[in-house]
TrEMBL record:
Protein name (database record): Peptidase M14
Active site residues per record: 250 (proton donor/acceptor)
Biological source species: Uabimicrobium amorphum
Entries under InterPro entries matching the protein: Peptidase_M14 (IPR000834)
Organism domain of life: Bacteria
């Protein structure tokens, strides 16, 4: 028993060290570039940990109107660890751009504020787990924890997803990228179970996706067509609820993080100057048969999980 206890402590130390690497990288970025990079957080998770990130802004650059706000968020799924390192890479690249007046993206990024949250699911990231546990110990998929117009799913079961949603609404986000792995795609709505997968803004999204993918040679298209449909995803919620131009970056297995970060930055420069006004999903187009089938499987898995936890008590 004593050996088991020691082993658990050692494992916990190794797991927590993974998130420490990200925090250390951000600390170096902020300490060495305090005029551009500042600490920020979106609130706490169910374990009481602060979900931290950095705010990237060229504060000395003045614009006639309010600056545009963007969000880059990684690691909804904790086992997709490269997504966190991509966020750090992108933050470092943006700081370099804002120090170089001759860079092609200097003016656009200087007229922007970019919030970077490398690790949303801290517990899953440390434990190399896709899911995240709520305060009662139940596991949930964070990227199935948002309101979905094609599913009456319960949502915001996790404090992390509730807090990132609150942050989005509070900061008037214009464009967002959520990072996952490992397929090698850069996709856009719709991703939900819908009969018509193309949004009213499909041509705009298609143009942006193709331009960005010239950099990293990824595939682009709608989430549902290129990857697979899913309920309660962050990217669909951002666009459907608020008209935020949102894309999902799925890193390749052997990703070139520098190229992928460049593609993300390109996205921020191509986003239209205002939110979409044609973003609402018409509920009549929902593919309810597949929604119910998917939901029943999820309900079954969650019920099995609760039973196992009860047996352990």
């Amino acid at each position: 028993m004593r050996h088991l206890f020691i082993a658990l402590i050692l494992c916990a130390s190794v797991w927590s060290a993974e998130y420490d690497k990200i925090i250390n990288s951000l600390t170096n970025l902020v300490d060495n570039n305090s005029e551009i990079a500042q600490w920020m957080d979106i609130g706490k998770n169910d374990q009481g940990q602060d979900i931290r990130g950095v705010k990237i802004e060229n504060a000395t650059f003045k614009v006639d109107e309010e600056k545009k706000n963007y969000l880059l968020v990684g690691t909804h799924h904790g086992n997709e660890r490269q997504s966190a390192y991509l966020c750090v890479e992108a933050a470092e690249q943006m700081v370099k751009i804002l120090k170089n007046r001759n860079h092609e993206h200097y003016a656009r990024l200087s007229a922007s504020v970019i919030y970077v949250v490398p690790v949303l699911n801290i517990g899953g990231f440390n434990a190399y787990s896709r899911a995240e546990r709520d305060k009662n110990g139940y596991s949930h998929d964070p990227n199935r924890d948002y309101p979905d117009p094609c599913d009456s799913n319960s949502y915001f079961k996790l404090m992390s997803t509730q807090n990132i949603a609150n942050f989005v609404e509070r900061n008037n986000i214009l464009g967002a990228v959520t990072v996952h792995g490992y397929i090698g795609t850069f996709t856009y709505p719709w991703g939900m179970y819908t009969k018509k997968t193309k949004t009213a803004d499909h041509k705009i999204y298609d143009m942006i996706g193709k331009e960005c993918c010239k950099i990293n040679n990824y595939r682009t298209g709608t989430h549902a067509d290129v990857i697979y449909p899913a309920t309660g995803a962050f990217e669909d919620w951002c666009y459907n609820a608020h008209g935020i131009w949102t894309m999902l970056l799925e890193l390749a297995h052997s990703a070139n993080l520098a190229k992928d970060a460049e593609a993300v930055i390109k996205f921020f420069t191509l986003v239209p100057g205002e939110r979409s006004k044609s973003h609402k999903h018409p509920g009549k187009n929902c593919n309810m048969v597949n929604v119910r089938s998917n939901r029943s499987r999820c309900d079954l898995l969650e019920e099995q999980q609760k039973q196992l936890l009860e047996q352990k008590k």
